[in-house]
Write a structure and sequence with these properties.
Helix content: 40-55%
Radius of gyration: 25 Å
Bound molecules: zinc ion
Oligomer: single chain
Strand content: 5-15%
Mean pLDDT: 91
CATH class of one domain: Alpha Beta
Length: 689
């Protein structure tokens, strides 16, 4: 599970340069601002550690094509065609069409595909179909057809018999509706209650024409009902229709995505001799075994080795991990992060995990749903060194893995908060004018200035270290019962755990907050975000789709409604603008506790009906006039609602024998430069997979 950033951190002002080579903020396009993160401490690592990180980064970047293909079956072909135009087109680059196209390809790169990374809706091109055809054709002619996509386009035609024009025309006819027709591949992940979620989602986890009922039946049959240690069935494969019915194409070496996976394996094995300890080498060996076999039992074994290895300085995630991109929540997108410990900040999360049992015992939930013994809650603060796959460029600020329920129950989990990303967000947010516009008064803004950063970090820690790891399912509850509402309920549960405890005197006792006022800054931000300001991420007329946004909405609206008669939280009008007013912070805490009890009950009992009611009643619908107002106020600030990160560049310095003698880090690569370099150097998969 991952935690995405709150809306409290946003802006567009340029930061002063720190050092010669580094700045926090970079270019802005569409609804996106690119940031950079500093890898503080990298220069002080040993050569061995730097070399380890270097090869792990290579293993990370080699998964890039996988995610593009997972996000849609045309994405790799389109990326290559778009890049050919972007780099090779000789026409007027100041024209309206080209400028719209340049923005489009930047969004396409950012999302690893045709659809918005967060809202999942297909991008609307600002250039004409005719311009696209002509640009593509002229680029192909320049390249004498040695170009991209030809293999695909010439499929079925004898060698050399397809003219440039004919090849181009065939490609064009195939992808035209994919790019330009709003009715084709409309949503990457459609979660609308009542729709056939598989048929109507454009992701590439299910073959064409496969229905939700078929997919659900296929996986229900494969579930071993009495297995106390069930594998995550369906996690690492595409479900396709074969001659004898449905079957899985497994993502593994020599299987689907085998070309990328071989490169990942190669670099993991190059990294292996430089690992911090033998346990890490065992982790790599098991991961390689899993990539070779695709066996999900091996994946669970790998996960256990991985979560238990907490001594090393360097760590990484590399694999098919999160299931947010599958409407059925079974299939995992590929992602990677390489990181090393931030020792100072790790002390904070260690304090929390040392007291994990205290938090579990005092949690405001039915005692039957508490874990009698909270095991292995390990937590640390890390410095990200590279982001890849589904963690790039848009990324999480905290990660809690593995996702397997039985592994978590029996072995615990590993939690990280990513401090250098959080700090890049907060640097970018200063002076944005956002709080001035949306926070009710100067006293509250002062509260947020004073405590906002520390409580934001603390909430992330509580969410990741304790929230996800807390509670237990009743023995006969199937972990998948909550279906499409599972992610939202789980994220809500972890958020509520953090919200409830943030206001606890225990926080002061443990030295995690300076005083009894601090939590109020976070409560205000959370309510403002959930009731109002997160709506800036949604287009007029839309509903809330993404799991984290839904959880924040259902929490904020539920406590708002349930505290209405006591006026705990109000929405008030001043000069025609709506503001959140919190009248009673202590009562707000009680409401968070009450809702935590209910959400834990839903999870523990697998109460699908209640999960659906909670999410659909409080987490999906948008108050249209309020939404309109928020969008207008936000627009006037000229801020980009989404952020993403440009990676640093690592360069290996080698001696005459090819041994790495140093690894240099640089922050000067531009966004498009980085994307084009990745497309060139990590170009592992064919057009069609
Ligand atoms: Zn989470």
């Amino acid at each position: 599970m991952l935690l995405l950033t709150l809306m409290t951190t946003m802006t567009c002002n340029m930061e002063a340069q720190r050092g010669t080579d580094f700045r926090y903020t970079d270019e802005t396009f569409a609804d996106i601002q690119m940031l950079r993160y500093r890898v503080d401490g990298f220069e002080n690592l040993t050569l061995r550690q730097k070399t380890y990180i270097y090869y792990l980064s290579e293993a990370a970047l080699h998964g890039r094509d996988i995610l593009f293909d997972q996000n849609g079956r045309y994405n790799l072909r389109l990326r290559r065609a778009f890049e050919a135009i972007y780099t090779g087109w000789k026409g007027n680059r100041e024209s309206k069409d080209f400028r719209a196209f340049a923005e489009y390809i930047k969004r396409f790169w950012f999302s690893s595909g045709l659809h918005h990374h967060y809202g999942c809706e297909k991008f609307v091109p600002g250039f004409s179909a005719e311009w696209f055809r002509q640009a593509l054709q002229s680029v192909w002619q320049q390249n004498n057809l040695q170009s991209l996509c030809l293999a695909t386009c010439a499929k079925g035609a004898p060698d050399g018999e397809l003219s440039a024009e004919a090849a181009c025309e065939r490609f064009y006819q195939e992808v035209l509706p994919v790019i330009f027709d709003p009715a084709v591949m409309t949503m990457r992940v459609n979660q609308r209650d009542g729709d056939d979620l598989v048929l109507t989602s454009a992701e590439n986890y299910y073959g064409e024409g496969i229905t939700q009922a078929e997919a659900e039946q296929f996986y229900t049959q494969r579930k071993a009902p009495l297995d106390p240690q069930p594998i995550m069935t369906g996690l690492n494969s595409r479900l396709v229709r074969g001659a004898d019915g449905l079957r899985e194409e497994v993502w593994r070496e020599h299987g689907l995505y085998g070309q990328s996976i071989s490169k990942i394996i190669e670099n993991l094995l190059l990294a292996r001799p430089f690992a911090d300890n033998e346990e890490q080498q065992a982790v790599i060996d098991k991961l390689v075994e899993y990539y070779r076999t695709g066996d999900l039992r091996t994946f669970d074994e790998y996960s256990i080795l991985w979560l238990k290895e907490t001594e090393g300085l360097v760590d990484f995630v590399n694999g098919f991990t999160e299931t947010y991109g599958d409407p059925l929540g079974l299939k995992a997108s590929w992602e990677s992060i390489v990181n090393f410990k931030d020792l100072e900040a790790t002390r904070r999360t260690e304090t929390l995990s040392q007291h994990a049992q205290w938090f579990e015992d005092h949690s405001p939930v039915d005692p039957r749903f508490r874990k009698p013994e909270v095991r292995g809650v390990s937590a640390k603060v890390i410095t990200a060194a590279i982001l890849a796959g589904d963690l790039y460029p848009s990324t999480a600020i905290g990660i809690n893995l593995p996702n397997s329920d039985w592994v978590r129950r029996e072995h615990g989990s590993k939690s990280v908060t990513i401090a250098n990303l959080t700090s890049a967000y907060s640097h970018a947010s200063r002076g944005s004018g956002f709080d001035e516009e949306f926070v009710i008064d100067e006293a509250t803004r002062q509260l947020i200035r004073q405590y906002g950063d520390v409580t934001d970090d603390l909430h992330t820690d509580l969410h990741e270290c304790l929230g996800h790891g807390s509670g237990q399912l009743l023995p006969d509850t199937d972990p998948d019962t909550l279906g499409v509402y599972g992610s939202t309920i789980e994220e809500g549960r972890a958020d509520l755990f953090g919200l409830y405890y943030m206001a606890d005197p225990k926080m002061i006792e443990l030295g995690l907050v300076p005083d009894a006022e601090a939590y109020k800054a976070h409560y205000y931000n959370y309510m403002m975000n959930g009731l109002m300001t997160q709506l800036v991420r949604i287009k007029a007329g839309g509903t809330i789709e993404e799991a984290h946004m839904r959880n924040r909405a259902f929490i904020a609206h539920w406590v708002y409604e349930h505290g209405k008669k006591d006026r705990v939280v109000e929405l008030i009008q001043r000069n025609g603008k709506t503001y959140v007013k919190v009248n009673d912070y202590a009562a707000l805490r009680s409401l968070f506790g009450e809702l935590l009890g209910e959400v834990q009950r839903i999870k523990s009992e697998g109460d699908f009906i209640a999960a659906r009611a909670l999410v659909e009643n409080y987490g999906v619908q948008v108050d249209a006039p309020l939404h309109q107002e928020i969008l207008q106020r936000y627009e006037a600030l000229h801020l980009a609602p989404y952020k993403g990160f440009i990676n640093p560049v690592y360069t290996a310095v080698r001696d005459a024998q090819g041994q790495i003698v140093d690894v240099k880090i640089s922050y000067s690569e531009g966004y498009d430069e980085q994307m084009l370099r990745y497309s060139r150097d990590y170009n592992d998969l064919p057009d069609v997979n």
